[in-house]
Amino acid sequence: MSESGFIGIFRDISCSCRSNRKRRSLETASFGLAASSAPRDVLRGDKESHCSWRRAERQVDVRVVTTEHAKHFYNAAEVSVKIYTDKDEWELWTRRSDPVLHIELRRWADLLVIAPLDANTLGKIASGICDNLLTCVVRAWDTSRPLLFCPAMNTAMWLHPITAQQVSKLKEFGYVEIPCIAKKLVCGDEGKGAMAEVSTIVSTVKQYLQKPDESSQKT
C-alpha cells in the first residue's frame, strides 16, 4: 500500500518555558486506505470532535509536511496552514550554503506528532530509513523533545507480528504511542487499526505542549 503523510507544527501561546513565543508542534502523517479520511479530519478537525486543529491554531503555530501520496486525501485549499512537500526540500536548497528544510523544521518545532502513521512509514522509521521530507524530519528529530505517533492500518496488517516489534522499537526511541482503535475500516473490515479520534490526538498534543521543554533547559 502506498505511503502518504503530513507534518504540522504548533506553538502554545500559554507556555513561556522557552520565551513568550507560542510553542511549536511538528506533525507528520502517512496514510493507507485504513486512514483515507485522516488528512482531512486531522487538518480541519472532524465534525464530531469537540477539539480541532483549527481551534488549536489559536494557541499554537501550525505547519504541515505532506508526502506526495497524501495529496490525494485532502484539498490543500481547505488547509489554512503552511504546507511543505518533498519538492520544497529541493527548491529551498540550490547550493551548499542554503538551509536544509528538514533540519530547519526540526529546529523550529517543539513537538512532533505523526497522525496517522501507516504500516509503510512505521517500518521506515523503525529501520531508520529517511527517503522523503517526512522521514528525514523524523530521523533528524531531537529525541529530548516529544514525538507522538498514531498508528493506522488494516487490522490484518496491525496484527502482523512485525508491527508490534516496530511499535516497540519506536517506543525504545522515546516516542509516545497514541494507540489505534477498533472500528469499521474503509476496506470493510471491522477491527483494530483505525487512527485514534482527532479529539484524543489534540488533547494529547496539548498535554505535551504544556510540559517544560527539556532541550531548552540544557546547559
Automatic annotation (TrEMBL):
UniProt keyword list: Coenzyme A biosynthesis
A single GO cellular-component term on record: phosphopantothenoylcysteine decarboxylase complex
Statement: the UniProt record of this protein carries the keyword Phosphoprotein: no
Family affiliation: Belongs to the HFCD (homooligomeric flavin containing Cys decarboxylase) superfamily.
Name of this protein: Phosphopantothenoylcysteine decarboxylase
Functional description taken from the UniProt entry: Catalyzes the decarboxylation of the cysteine moiety of 4-phosphopantothenoylcysteine to form 4'-phosphopantotheine and this reaction forms part of the biosynthesis of coenzyme A.
A Gene Ontology molecular function term of the record: FMN binding
GO biological process: coenzyme A biosynthetic process
Domain Flavoprotein residue range list: 57-208
